[in-house]
Each structure stands twice: as structure tokens, then as C-alpha cells.
Amino acid sequence: MAISIGIAKKDREQIGEQLSKLLADTYSLYLKTHSFHWNITGPHFNSLHTMFETQYTGLALAVDEVAERIRTLDLFAPGSYSQFGKLTSIKEEAGVPDWKDMVGQLVEGHEIAAHTSREVIKVADAAGDEGTVDMVTGRLKDHEKTAWMLRSLLK
Questions:
Q1: Domain of 59?
Q2: Is residue 138 in some structural domain?
Q3: Which residues form the Ferritin/DPS domain (predicted)?
Q4: Is residue 1 part of a domain?
């Protein structure tokens, strides 16, 4: 059955391209946060271990929400490391940095995801896709708040 939700195919495809970038950023940030949760050491171990767990749990839920929005638009969501690697703007961390660098990298990652979210909102808003605008506005607020909270640890 053909999709008929009031958004033209061309517009859905453009929105899907931007959502795929957000999905890749979100997944990359999830993976980095989870790795840092496992590998954190030092005097702030307990608080950062717990904070990172809360953050990666939220990101895991966000990955599903973004992917399902892509599917709602009748498009296929990327789902492999190679696809995400091509789409994300978040730098991979292959090592185990100290806690300050971990926090700094996560601040940067959330700020990148906020920028990506704003691009999705622009494209979706221009197409009259209120559903995507609403969902991504929530994601934007989460990324901005998390970046602020993490940035506050470094002052």
C-alpha cells in the first residue's frame, strides 16, 4: 500500500537523508558514551560511570526513535557501522582517554548532534513535516542540555 501522509516523496527523501545523519551521530555518540562508561577511571569514577550510563541509555532509546521516524516516512534506515561511519560527523575514539578528555569529547559529540538536529528541523519544517520537527526538537533539547551538564564538569 502506498504511503499518503501529506509529504511528497522528494521531501520525505530529503528529510530521510538528514535523519540518517542524525541517526549516525546518535549511534556514534551512544557507542562512545558506552565505551567511556566501561573504561572510566580516576577520582570521579562513580559519578561519571553513573552519568555515562544514564546518557547511553537515553541515546539507545533515541537511536530507535530516529530510525523509526525514518521508517515512518517509508524510507529505510541505515544500520551498519560502515553506513554510520560515512554519515556521522562525530570522531571515533579508539583509545582510552583520561576523564577530562572523555567529558570534552562527549560535549563535542552532543554539540555536533545539536547542529545536525537543527539541519533536520530546517528541512522538515520546509516540507511541513511537523512530526519530524517535534521529535527532533526534543532530541535537540536533550543534546543541548547534556552538553551543558558535561561542560559544567570542566569548569
A1: 9-153
A2: yes
A3: 17-154
A4: no
Q: Which residue has the cell 560511570?
A: 49
Cβ distance 123 to 18 under 8 Å? yes
**The pLDDT value given to residue 4:** 87
Q: What is the pTM of this model?
A: 0.96
Residues 6+ apart with CB under 8 A from 68: 77
DSSP class of 73: T
What is the Rg, in whole angstroms, of the alpha carbon atoms belonging to the chain? 16
28 in a structural domain: yes
Give me the CATH number covering residue 36.
1.20.1260.10
- Sign (positive/negative) of CA torsion 101, 104, 110, 113? negative
Is the pLDDT assigned to residue 2 strictly greater than 90?
no
SS3 91: coil
